[in-house]
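Field reference: sequence -> structure
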Amino acid sequence: MAVGDVVAVASPRQPPYLAQVICCEGGARSGHPSFLQVVREDDLAVLTIQADWVLERLPGVRGAEKKPKKLAVKERLCSD
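Structure field:
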């Protein structure tokens, strides 16, 4: 999982919900994340969850910062 991914979360005390990952924290012995900080889609609550609560992952768009297009500037010639 990575920042920007949308995940389906099933925590033990709440019905499943969709959330977007805003921070991943890896474990001490493994490179896999053990905790995630997410924004819940329903109410925009920021939550810290365990990575094993994630049911499904929809990869986010990484590096999607589009470069601004260069607009062709046409000069207008005004004749008086």
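Note: The radius of gyration is 21 Å.
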